[in-house]
Recover the amino acids of this structure.
């Protein structure tokens, strides 16, 4: 660990005092911008490494990444005090060793040069002391009227420390109010629980115990608390075709989502159709009154089949409904789960993990009304951006002007910061002490990896100021909370909690609850095109809009980068006469918005999905002005979506930067799929799709790989297409971001891409890294020998030797090579330099690059093994993409080791080679996908 | 050589089709050397010179910007990692073929009609090959390391990777350029001596010195002539296989690759035929204005133009055979990637280029079956331009349309040229014309010595 570097002493030149002062100012700025070292308090490295995770020279600290109030357990890699990479925490229920794209990109957020770097009063730089002074002036007033004009607005909160602080604040100032608003909070889930159980409850799904899963516009594998666990548990039995028919996933979806893409049977329907279908299915199963018949034959067959499957798996089924459905319908889902005997078995209910007011819309509306009415004189916004995200009809920006003292604590000087009187820089998750709970209630400590880069503070520290607490140190505050919980043996507990990243036994206990016997159907008379708002798969609700990794991440289903688009189904688009790229005007309840259309075959008809999080005006240099702001249509009444949108073509065209434009496989055996029945009859169906080939002849003797022989197997039965591998690889291998124009030219740099195909009504995903061909076409054509084979069979790229003829890329049938057409890597900004993985070369313009199978990790593992005078053991070495994969679809290892997992994977009947007719002998192979569709729906 | 009685009078030519009647040694020399030495090129030459010079500045400006920013200023990408630069390279090297073919192959075949067109055709070859040689270097990601293709001894013990056709290509082009330059220069020596002497008569000292140095002390002795003839013939023999080898090896840059549309055994003959086709088209493009503006109708006759037109017609069919063979192989092989590539050329995004190419390279030249067309100078000029453009489109199609949709549809893409791509292409055309303008200004565009020989031969009534 390094300490802060002292500025290099610069002797003032002969031209005197002014220059001396300038130099002093410059060196002080340098000292501030540089590495600021570890926090002063003791932080502890993660010592008990789980099997199959590699401790290298860098240190790993267990912490939590908090998104939408929920903790995601992570191990953050720290190189000389610089957090550079995030891995999942295997002990954490939300992570289980994997992460989603957001946690992967969180290190870039930490090092984002656009982060807020100073306290601001209006447009002027100010200080924390000045803020405290301003606050203290109000304190007499609070004491007098019990804080009647004091309001706190937070996002969703699961932190016990923050909850305790807010509770203390409300005790001290009883008239003060705490409001919560997260634009993507699922208010409907809370309402549904209220209807069904009379109290707000969180629902957990035990997918591992389920035989049949029915999702109703619920993206259990994607945008859902605990998504990683759901995907892991669902795919567990399907690996390598072990037991493909053990589980079956039915999905009814309005918007194209990961869950539906992976489903065995998927039906795209508008939300109202899904609701009607659910009422009819429930009626068949005796959970609801008779509700008529499906209007179309396909729907009727589907409903019958689903009802039959659910009935056959009583106690082993899961029915889940998503936020686009009416709370009453979602309450019916609780009823249905109870009728089927799933509650207590596959569906559990726990007390809400969040401690914030559960109805966010109502809460923020109350706040806005009070502000407009002048009843708020002090407003503290903790890590929320309501000016951008609040329902459009609340006119939050205007409301801000009615508040005498408004202060915003945030990572960025965002829209809210700009209309607040004060802006306070928030410490990043990896810079602060805190605590948070996972979706199942498991608590964990958030420990900092680095002292705040810009003198930022955590919400706890700011609340301590408001409370007038003597103790203002975040570390002490968090310890204080847990000392109260634990009492005796606290020090040991604390050390354990820091080391493991989770607090044992803190998960919430399932409650024995019974839903109401009778749920009344919602009134349904909507028609027309329904608008559904959803989180963008890459920038979420907008908080990641300035994260270039995420902006450039192809959204799994649309392959769109650097934009959001109004998603429409093909028939609806044809009816409206629009195609992808056409800009339409969407009118909803008097509000209008121009948005480019992206037509997706998986999108339900009569449903317009508008991803949120774009059209930011104060996100930072990356996110400003990208995409359209769907919040402008999202009024209080339309939070969960609204019907009767009018869509008209404007005639304008917007260029969409799609990573992949062709979704048809053109009859080529690229992603090989069969249903479980065919797989039983013909276990090697994957090879039956291949052309008969002439036996291969070679003039050269075969190469013997004596030592290690690296290989990778990617199981398409497990891959859900989430693209976490793409971001993990980007973080690990210093892969630059190229920007929208360059993506449109076809120059995205990702070393592992997730291809998406549409075939026979299915969306198929296929991660494609370098194949590391034994007979590599790229090597034969390089005139300078810049790409060569090593003794372990890796196809390595020698950046120093590359002159950039690009012949290798032309000759690569898999097109996995990436070229630095321009100087893409930013080698000037201090923060971005600090982010780089020190073990990987930062490439210059004019050289080719590609997946190396994480060569640096192989080297690290080799060094460790050689120190112990043994070979690298299987599982000791994982590539970045393998480590991050939520479903462990990627297996990497030594093909010379007869017991290695990768060798087992390659021995499976499903294992096949991509483009085998080219005789390239790839080291990366795939396991063909076996799906388990309902035979009744064939 | 048959023994003849020395005649006191210098011979006068008879009309033999490739030379009009009434020309003697002196008048031929006066006419051709006069173009160089008379001076006063007139506003047309200057206008053309300045216009193309502006283009040359564009070319080098684009090159400078390319070095500053990188090849990303072009439209190349992944999958289409090769774009205009490679298409231009193949096009120019193809154009560079006709000169050597005319000089060397037709010399060995004793075709008399080569005499008055070989000089400028060789200059064309040289300029075209030199321009062609620039493009692969510009095309590199790190052009300053182009010399790593050369097997030079170094402390790292690094050698080029000999399996790569790009290394072969490097040698093929370097050899071709060198031999073409030698061939052209050796052929120029007697004429340079003529210019030296004439500049001396006109008391133009500077020119006399320069031409004199370049003439290497040529005095027109019989011994000089004997050695000159031998050397020239030997060089012709050396250059002849190069005519075939260069484009064969250029074609291997593609044929060795596994990309559908590249990976084809027809490529070497197909490329050579295409090269001759485009080269002869360029010869016509240059010959027609040359004879028009400098009044060379007596030396570059309609017979020359018609003969070139016949070569065009023949090579057009060879090229057409290449197209047909590619299509046949794609379907006969049954390979789905080859089949798709072929159909994609017909109906894919680059189909307009394909059909324009067919119109330019296969349909338009069929007009040459008519004698009237072969003897119509404007028609020939138009056709030569059309074929030049068509052949460029062929190069573009081979390079781009093969790459843009290969094996995995997920990796398919499009190539759209950027303004810098066009600047480099049009700039290279300007550079070529500019160099040619300088050539006609300072060197005899038609071989004086060989024309004098032709005068004698025609006077003697040799066939």
């Amino acid at each position: 660990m390094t300490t802060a570097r002292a500025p290099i002493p610069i002797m003032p030149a002969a031209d005197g005092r002014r220059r001396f002062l300038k130099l002093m100012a410059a060196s002080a700025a340098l000292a501030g911008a540089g590495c600021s070292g570890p926090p002063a308090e003791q932080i502890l490295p993660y010592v008990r490494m789980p099997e199959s995770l590699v401790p290298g020279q860098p240190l790993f600290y267990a912490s939590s990444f908090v998104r939408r109030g929920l903790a995601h357990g992570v191990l953050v890699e720290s190189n000389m005090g610089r957090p550079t990479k995030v891995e999942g925490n295997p002990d954490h229920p939300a992570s289980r060793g994997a992460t989603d794209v957001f946690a992967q990109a969180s290190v870039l957020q930490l090092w984002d040069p656009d982060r807020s770097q100073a306290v601001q009063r209006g447009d002027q730089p100010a200080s924390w002391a000045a803020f405290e002074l301003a606050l203290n002036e109000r304190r007499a007033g609070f004491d007098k009227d019990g804080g009647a004009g004091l309001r706190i607005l937070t996002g969703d909160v699961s932190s016990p420390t923050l909850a305790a602080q807010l509770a203390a604040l409300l005790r001290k100032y009883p008239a003060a109010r705490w409001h919560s608003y997260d634009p993507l909070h699922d208010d409907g889930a809370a309402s549904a629980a209220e209807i069904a159980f009379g109290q707000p409850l969180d629902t957990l799904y035990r997918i591992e115990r389920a035989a049949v899963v029915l999702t109703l516009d619920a993206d259990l594998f994607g945008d859902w608390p605990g998504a990683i666990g759901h995907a892991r548990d669902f795919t567990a039995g399907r690996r390598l075709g072990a037991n493909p028919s053990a589980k079956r996933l039915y999905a009814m979806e309005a918007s194209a989502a990961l869950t539906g893409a992976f489903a065995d049977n998927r039906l795209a329907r508008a939300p109202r159709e899904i609701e009607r279908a659910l009422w009819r299915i429930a009626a068949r199963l005796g959970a609801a009154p008779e509700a008529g018949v499906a209007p179309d034959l396909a729907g009727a067959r589907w409903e019958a089949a689903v009802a039959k499957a659910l009935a056959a798996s009583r106690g082993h089924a899961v029915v889940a409904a998503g936020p686009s459905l009416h709370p009453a319908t979602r309450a019916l889902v609780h009823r249905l789960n109870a009728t089927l005997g799933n509650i207590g078995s596959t569906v559990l209910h726990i007390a809400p993990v969040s401690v914030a007011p559960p109805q966010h819309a109502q809460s923020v509306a109350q706040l806005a009304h009070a502000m407009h009415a002048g009843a708020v004189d002090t407003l503290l916004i903790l890590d929320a951006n309501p000016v951008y995200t609040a329902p459009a009809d609340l006119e939050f920006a205007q409301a801000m002007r009615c508040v005498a003292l408004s202060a915003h604590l945030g990572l960025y000087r965002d829209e809210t910061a700009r209309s607040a009187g004060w802006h306070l820089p928030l410490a990043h998750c990896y810079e602060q002490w805190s605590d948070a709970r996972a979706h199942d209630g498991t608590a964990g400590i958030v420990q900092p990896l680095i002292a705040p880069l810009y003198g930022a503070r955590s919400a706890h520290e700011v609340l301590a100021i408001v409370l007038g607490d003597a103790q203002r140190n975040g570390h002490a505050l968090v310890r204080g909370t847990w000392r109260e919980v634990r009492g005796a043996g606290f020090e040991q507990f604390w050390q354990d909690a820091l080391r493991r990243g989770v607090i044992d036994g803190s998960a919430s206990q399932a409650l024995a609850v019974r839903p109401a016997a009778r749920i009344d159907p919602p009134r349904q008379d909507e028609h027309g095109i329904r608008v559904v708002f959803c989180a963008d798969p890459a920038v979420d609700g907008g908080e990641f809009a300035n994260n270039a990794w995420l902006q450039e991440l192809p959204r799994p289903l649309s392959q769109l980068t650097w934009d959001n688009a109004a998603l429409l189904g093909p028939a609806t688009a044809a009816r409206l006469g629009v195609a992808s790229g056409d800009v339409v005007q969407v009118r909803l309840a008097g509000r209008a918005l121009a948005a480019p259309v992206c037509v997706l075959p998986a999108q339900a008809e009569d449903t317009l999905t508008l991803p949120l999080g774009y059209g930011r005006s104060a996100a930072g240099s990356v996110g400003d002005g990208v995409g359209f702001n769907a919040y402008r249509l999202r009024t209080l009444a339309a939070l969960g979506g609204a019907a009767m949108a009018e869509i008209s073509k404007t005639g304008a065209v917007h260029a969409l930067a799609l990573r992949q434009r062709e979704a048809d496989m053109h009859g080529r055996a690229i992603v090989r799929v069969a249903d479980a029945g065919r797989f039983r009859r013909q276990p090697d169906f994957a090879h039956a799709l291949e052309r008969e080939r002439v036996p291969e002849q070679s003039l050269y003797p075969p190469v013997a790989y004596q030592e290690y022989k690296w290989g990778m197997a990617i199981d398409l039965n497990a891959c859900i297409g989430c693209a976490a591998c793409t971001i993990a690889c980007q973080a690990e291998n210093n892969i630059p971001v190229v920007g929208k124009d360059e993506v449109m030219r076809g120059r995205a740099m990702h070393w592992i891409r997730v291809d998406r195909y549409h075939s026979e009504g299915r969306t198929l995903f296929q991660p494609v890294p370098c194949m590391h061909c034994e007979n590599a076409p790229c090597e034969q054509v390089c005139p300078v020998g810049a790409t060569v084979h090593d003794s372990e069979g890796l196809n390595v790229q020698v950046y120093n030797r590359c002159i950039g003829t690009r012949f290798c890329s032309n000759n690569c049938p898999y097109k996995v090579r990436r070229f630095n057409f321009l100087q893409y890597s930013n080698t000037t900004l201090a923060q971005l330099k600090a982010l780089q993985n020190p073990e990987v070369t930062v490439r210059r313009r004019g050289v080719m690059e590609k997946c190396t199978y994480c060569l640096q990790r192989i080297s690290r593992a080799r060094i460790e093994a050689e120190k112990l005078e043994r070979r690298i053991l299987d599982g000791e070495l994982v590539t970045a993409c393998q480590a991050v994969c939520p479903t462990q679809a990627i297996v990497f290892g030594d093909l010379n080791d007869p017991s290695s997992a990768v060798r087992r994977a390659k021995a499976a009947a499903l294992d096949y080679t991509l483009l085998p007719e080219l005789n390239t002998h790839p080291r990366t192979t795939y396991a063909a996908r076996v799906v388990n569709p309902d035979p009744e729906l064939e | 050589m048959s023994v003849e009685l020395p005649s006191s009078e210098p011979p006068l030519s008879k009309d033999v089709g490739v030379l009009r009647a009434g020309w003697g040694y002196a008048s031929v020399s006066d006419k051709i050397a006069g173009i160089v030495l008379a001076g006063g090129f007139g506003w047309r030459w200057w206008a053309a010179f300045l216009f193309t010079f502006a283009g040359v500045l564009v070319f080098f400006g684009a090159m400078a910007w390319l070095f500053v920013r990188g090849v990303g200023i072009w439209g190349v990408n992944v999958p289409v990692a090769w774009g205009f630069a490679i298409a231009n390279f193949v096009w120019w090297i193809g154009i560079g073929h006709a000169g050597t073919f005319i000089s060397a192959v037709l010399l060995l075949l004793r075709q008399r009609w080569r005499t008055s067109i070989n000089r400028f055709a060789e200059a064309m070859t040289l300029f075209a090959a030199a321009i062609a040689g620039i493009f692969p270097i510009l095309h590199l990601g790190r052009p300053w390391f182009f010399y790593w293709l050369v097997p030079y001894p170094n402390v790292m013990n690094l050698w080029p990777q000999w399996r790569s056709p790009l290394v072969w290509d490097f040698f093929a082009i370097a050899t071709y350029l060198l031999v073409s330059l030698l061939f052209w220069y050796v052929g120029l020596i007697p004429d340079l001596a003529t210019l030296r002497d004439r500049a001396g008569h006109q008391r133009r000292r500077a020119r006399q010195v320069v031409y004199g140095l370049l003439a290497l002390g040529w005095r027109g002795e019989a011994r000089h002539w004997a050695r000159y003839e031998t050397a020239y013939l030997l060089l012709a023999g050396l250059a002849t296989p190069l005519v075939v080898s260069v484009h064969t090896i250029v074609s291997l840059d593609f044929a060795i690759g596994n990309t559908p549309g590249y990976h084809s055994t027809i490529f070497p003959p197909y490329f050579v035929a295409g090269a001759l086709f485009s080269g002869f088209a360029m010869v016509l493009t240059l010959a027609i204005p040359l004879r028009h503006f400098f009044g060379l109708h007596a030396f570059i006759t309609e017979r020359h133009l018609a003969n070139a037109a016949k070569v065009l017609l023949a090579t057009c069919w060879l090229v057409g055979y290449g197209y047909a063979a590619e299509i046949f192989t794609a379907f006969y092989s049954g390979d789905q990637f080859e089949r798709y590539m072929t159909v994609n050329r017909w109906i894919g995004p680059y189909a307009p280029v394909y059909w324009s190419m067919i119109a330019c390279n296969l349909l338009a030249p069929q007009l040459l079956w008519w004698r009237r067309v072969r003897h119509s100078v404007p028609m020939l000029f138009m056709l030569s331009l059309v074929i030049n453009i068509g052949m460029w489109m062929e190069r573009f199609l081979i390079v781009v349309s093969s790459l843009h949709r290969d094996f995995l549809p997920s990796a398919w893409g499009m190539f759209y040229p950027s303004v810098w791509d066009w600047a480099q292409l049009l700039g290279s055309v300007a550079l070529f014309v500019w160099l040619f303008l300088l050539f006609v200004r300072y060197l005899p565009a038609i071989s004086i010595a060989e024309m004098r020989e032709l005068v004698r031969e025609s006077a003697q009534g040799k066939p």
In short: Chain A touches chain B through 54 residues (CB under 8 Å). The two ends of chain A are 61 Å apart (CA to CA). The mean pLDDT of chain A is 89.
